[in-house]
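Lecture notes, part 5. Sequence design as translation. It can be helpful to think of inverse folding as translation between two languages: the language of shapes and the language of residues. The source text, in structure tokens, appears below.
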């Protein structure tokens, strides 16, 4: 709690205009989801958004990150997908880790007050970003006017990024599994 308060103080000191009442603080934990039940137990009056993505898409995105020249390939001395004999072990380990993380997040979600929790499927967000975003903003209590929602959705669409960046990251040929997805 002291650490989170310090983050808020630093943001205020840096000139970020915070609400006079308790500010909204978002903890986005992708790689720390193994502690979701602990974190949420510290904030029983907080709202929880559990974003769940199809495990096959998670695996596909991680594999793309290891492709030659992609962001994760460049950071590692040894790419686990370069050698055929390493691939199956990598897939097994990655899938087991995804299942463990989802299990912990589900536990945190199930234990949290139903009025204070939302499950958001990544594929639904892609399929209809403005509608999902509008509903979330209202639920959280943030401004949800149409021009703002469209501006946010447009700025985060895949096509908003230069094609060279999309290709380098391995996104050019990939499409989400949700039917009717926008990007």
């Amino acid at each position: 709690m002291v650490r989170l308060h310090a983050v808020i103080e630093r943001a205020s000191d840096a000139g970020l205009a915070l609400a006079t009442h308790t500010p909204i603080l978002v903890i986005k934990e992708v790689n720390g989801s193994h502690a979701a039940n602990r974190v949420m137990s510290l904030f029983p009056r907080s709202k929880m958004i559990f974003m769940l993505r199809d495990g096959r898409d998670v695996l596909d995105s991680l594999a793309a990150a290891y492709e030659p020249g992609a962001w994760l390939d460049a950071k590692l001395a040894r790419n686990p997908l370069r050698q055929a004999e390493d691939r199956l072990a990598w897939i097994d380990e990655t899938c087991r880790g995804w299942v463990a993380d989802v299990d912990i997040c589900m536990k945190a979600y199930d234990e949290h007050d139903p009025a204070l929790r939302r499950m958001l499927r990544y594929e639904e967000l892609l399929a209809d970003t403005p509608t999902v975003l509008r509903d979330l903003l209202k639920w959280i209590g943030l401004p949800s006017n149409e021009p703002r929602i469209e501006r946010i959705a447009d700025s985060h669409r895949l096509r908003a990024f230069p094609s060279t960046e999309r290709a380098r990251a391995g996104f050019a040929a990939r499409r989400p599994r949700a039917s009717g997805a926008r990007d």
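The translated text above is only one of many valid answers, since several sequences can fold into similar shapes. The longest strand covers residues 48-52.
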